[in-house]
Amino acid sequence: MKRISNHLKKQQGMTFIEVLIALVIMVTGILGAVAMQATAKKGSFDAMQRSLASALAQDILERMRSNDADPANAVLNTYVGTYGAADPGVAPAPACNTPGALCNSAQMVATDLFLWTQQLRGANVTAGGQNAGGQNAGGLLNAVGCITENNNAITVTVSWQGRTSTQDGAAADVGFATNTACGTANDQRRQVHIQAFIF
Description:
elongated
C-alpha cells in the first residue's frame, strides 16, 4: 500500500514541458485559422472586383443594344474608344436617362459613354470620399474600359489594378490582342473581356 501512495505522489499534475507543447500546438492552430480567414477575405475581395468589372462590361453592351439606330453599325463605331482614365467632364445635354427625354442616337451615345465613364471611375460608390486620383473609394482601382468593333462584333475590356502582384492580366490573352493594351501594363493589371454581336 505504501508503494502505491508513493507512486501517486510522483504523478501530480503536468510538467512545464507538457504545458509548453500544448500552448505551441494551440497557438499554431489559432494562427492558422486567422491566416485562413485573411486569405479567404482577399479572395472574396478579388472575386467582388471581377464581378463588378464583368457587370460594367455587360452594362455598356446593353446600352449599345438598346440604341436602336438604323443601320446598327453606323452608331456602334461611335462607341469605340478608351474610357475611365480621364474625367468625363459635365453631363451631356439633354440627359437621355430621364423618363420622357427624346434623344437621337448620337445623343444616346454621348449619355451612355458619360454614364459608363462615371461608373468606371466609381461615381456610384461615394462611401469613404475620394482617393488621391479623384476616384471614389470602393469601386475598381484605376479602372479603364476599352471598346472595339469589327463588323458588328463588339469586344469590351475592363481593366483595373488588383491588390497583389501576380501576372499581367493581358499577358495570356492571345485571342484578345486588340484590347490587351487596355489599362497600364504591370503585374497587378486584371482584365475582363466580353465579346458580343449586335445587329
